[in-house]
Amino acid sequence: MEQGKSKILILEDDETVRNSLKEILSRAGHSVFTASRPDEANGILAANGGLEFLFCDCLLPQMTGLDFIKQARANYPAAKFKVVLMSGIYTDKAFIQEATQSTQAVAFMKKPFDMEQVLKIVKKEEAPRREESTARKKLYQMFANPTVTNRQKRKVIESIEEVSGFDLPFLYSLLVETKSSGYLNIYNADGSVSGISFCNGNIVGVDVDDRTTFLGEMLIQSGYATPKDVQEALRDKNNRKIGNYLIQNNQLSPHAFDLILMEQMNIRLVRTIVDQKIRVNFASAEVEMSNPSIDADTLSYYLHDWIASKISVNWLKSLYVMWAGNIIVKSPTFRDDHPALTMSLVKSLEGLTVKLNNQVTLTQLLEIKGYSEVAVYKAIHFLLTKGLVVFAQKAAFANPAEQLKVIRKIHSELERKNSYEIVAYMETGTGGASTESILSDFMSLLGEEPSDSASEIYSYWHKVRALAEEAVNASKDSNKIDQFRQASQRSEAEAKLKATSLMEEVKKALQYTQFAKALEILSEVATLNPQMHQLHLYSAWAKLGSVDMSKKQFVLKEVELELLQVPPDERYDTLFPFVIGLFNKIKGDVVAARKSFEKSVALDPSFIPARREISILSSQNKKQDVFNMDLKQAISGFFKKR
Amino acid sequence: MGKLDVKMNKAADKLTVQMAGTIDEDVDFSQFSLGGNPQIEVELSGLKSINSCGIREWIKWMGTAGPAQISFSNCPKVIVDQINMVDGFLPATGKVSSFFVPYYNDDSGSEKNVLFRYGTEFTEGGVTPPASVKDEEGNEMEMDVIESKYFKFLKK
Q1: Secondary element (H or E) of residue B18
Q2: Most confident of A65-74, A193-202, A400-409
Q3: Which residue among A247, A362, A410, A514 has the highest number of C-beta atoms inside a 10 angstrom radius?
Q4: Choice among A135-139, A223-227, B32-36 with the minimum mean pLDDT
Q5: CB proximity list for A88: less than 8 A, separation 6 or greater
Q6: pLDDT tens by residue, A571-594
Q7: Interacting residues of A203 by C-beta distance below 8 A, sequence separation 6+
Q8: Do the chains contact at B81 and A194, CB–CB below 8 Å?
Q9: What is the C-alpha to C-alpha distance for residues A17 and A113, in angstroms, rounded to an integer?
Q10: Which of B23, B44, B52 to mutate to test the interface with A (most CBs of A within 10 A)?
Q11: Confidence of residue A561 (pLDDT cuts 50, 70, 90)
């Protein structure tokens, strides 16, 4: 992984000191410029933005070092370099104190000095900035190390001030894959606290505010219990817990109930994955193993599911801004027969694992014909979350055309946003550092400034820089940024409100089988609020309702993608089995369709569309006999208690 | 002994509470009454961990102390983290009298918790860390926390 080092200017007339300093700093990976006179140093300052340190001798040929520093600060107000003063002559305490104060120097080195001291000063001074600016990057690069210690995990989690709820799947995976034990506490913006308990790489407890159990719905959906048994259990006068009641009455096996409890943990975990800022804290602790628990293999399925259904592609796009041009490499834990590679997001990208052998970048993957943008972002995010790929060094743009394409894409993203949104976009992609480092990290994504001022690429490069700089400047004005923030929040709230009211129209249109109208409104809803509750279920219903049988296969594929995006917590009400029923019906599997419609009615007997479908199927199958029935249905029919 | 061990000792107007172990969903604070004590000192050096359920129970329990002046001593890192992160974790009448700061040596990997005491290593105004902290082999150790975050509660 590329680690940005500091740009350092040494202004020293003594050649031996200058060269020794240059050597030790360069060897440590810093980018070092040297000057023996103030005019030379001025030239370097003018030509190189982003200098972070100035090592300056106090006694120089044309002026004193202190005067030079004052002049440089006045001439280059945007330059934010830190000053380290050096002198072999002026070494009395009073001078050092005054010189340090007047130049705001971070250190004063008396000659001759130990070269180790130089590195220590740079490390100390750059540490907070580096820690902050690369914290998020470091988090997502944790799997690049074959072994991650508890301390490293804790440090990287601690160094992040805030994360998004969408970062949590990665954190869960990291803690599971590295066999952690302890508590991950999640502090939500509304003041509530949730927590996940880990025991030796297993998730053994999930504590969230919303305690909705979905137990009854899950038992019916899974087929582990009949609607009648569940209803009886719920009416139980002894107030026994539903699971205990069913197990004690031999209506449910303890193993099946464990599976249901695991699914319940999944749903609770899903509730934590929200598009909101949160804070997290992980403390190692001895946690007792308990059953059921979620291990690394089970978590793979959940991660895949969450990434497919919960994490918005817009968020992924801004997260991957920082890595779009970096080479994706297989991590030390990658193996060709890893089960994660058989999951649908990865499988939908034909030949992906082979392409990963060839120094490919995300930008290049997005260009591959037949690869959908959503699938590329989500599949790569899934592999990164599983620790199977990491991002290596930044690849140079293959040619100016590629650079132009990237810059134009970023430009089109920024164009639609206000300053607050632009800074938030840059922050997600660069790690939430100080505004200066956000800007410089962000600009590094655009590549070198193009030289031909008449070219299109030059024009776009400058347009993007102007937008980014304007946004960063606006972010320094708290009143202005508050106005932008409020405007953004207002328009987001209005869009959500409008999407909710349009959704009511969608439901009405679907009830009256006006599928084309429903699809039209749904596309507007998707634009207004891509995270709208049950959006994908209603879209699937509308698509299945209006299916032209000559395009059946195409529609089924589209609907499959819609269903993949239905989050787990939307799968336990009447709509989900109903849509699955429609899907099976169009596929031609009438028996499975009927079962799904029956589950739908069991979850909500007043849901008319499911009842209607059952009666349509019944009327079509009036002459059906036991030889055409589903085997299980036929057998259960023979032995049904009267 | 359960996961949490609580010892309470009342002398004159002062209640001393000593806690060790884990505060989680199994904790039952109702058996440890804090009410009716003008002064409470909570000693936490033995506390190992606290999870989200424990945090909620703690806040409820502290609420039962009423207007008592509560002083927390020997707070381990897990408690300092909660004080920094959760509003209300440290009750309005609560003060930290001492807390541990983790130290680390990069080369040997040694870790050590150093006690910062009110009036010596810290005040409301900020911290004055010890000039030097060494591990058992005499290696110089560095503070192993992000200072701006870890000491945030002192400014609250």
Answers
A1: strand B14-23
A2: A193-202
A3: A410
A4: A135-139
A5: A110, A111, A112
A6: 888 999 999 999 999 999 999 999
A7: A172, A176, A196, A197, A265, A269, A293, A294, A299
A8: no
A9: 10
A10: B52
A11: confident
User: Looking at this protein, which amino acid is placed at residue B15?
Assistant: L
Mean pLDDT of A21-44: 86
Contact between chains at B49 and A151 (C-beta distance less than 8 A): no
The share of chain B scoring above pLDDT 70, in percent, equals 98
Residue B125 to residue B146: CA distance in whole angstroms: 18
Out of B52, B87, B149, closest to residue A185 by CB: B52
Residue closest to A384 by CA, chosen among A586, A136, A118: A136
Confidence of residue A35 (pLDDT cuts 50, 70, 90): very high
Residue A384's pLDDT is: 93
Report residue A505 as tokens: 């129209």
**pLDDT for A629 beyond 60:** no
pLDDT digits (tens, 9 = 90+) for A446-465: 877 888 888 899 999 999 99
Shortest CA gap A96–chain B (Å): 21
DSSP state of B110: -
Helical segments of B1-146, H only: 52-63, 77-85
Taking an 8 Å cut-off on Cβ atoms, the answer to whether A158 and B149 are in contact is: yes
B52 with A195: Cβ contact below 8 A:
yes
Contact A207 B86 (CB under 8 A): no
Report which DSSP code applies to A165: G
Band of the pLDDT at A2, cuts 50, 70, 90? very low
How far is the first Cα of chain A from the last one, in angstroms, to the nearest whole number? 69
Q: A279 in contact with B at a CB cutoff of 8 Å?
A: yes
DSSP state of A626: G
- Tokens standing for A407? 């810059």
B53 shares contact with chain A (CB less than 8 Å): yes
Partner B, chain A 172-191, Cβ-Cβ below 8 Å: 182-183, 185-187, 191
| Distance in angstroms (rounded) separating the CA atoms of residues A595 and A614 | 9
Q: Which residue in this structure is represented by tokens 């990976």?
A: A29
Token readout for A606 is: 């007043």
What's the rounded mean pLDDT across residues B137-147? 91
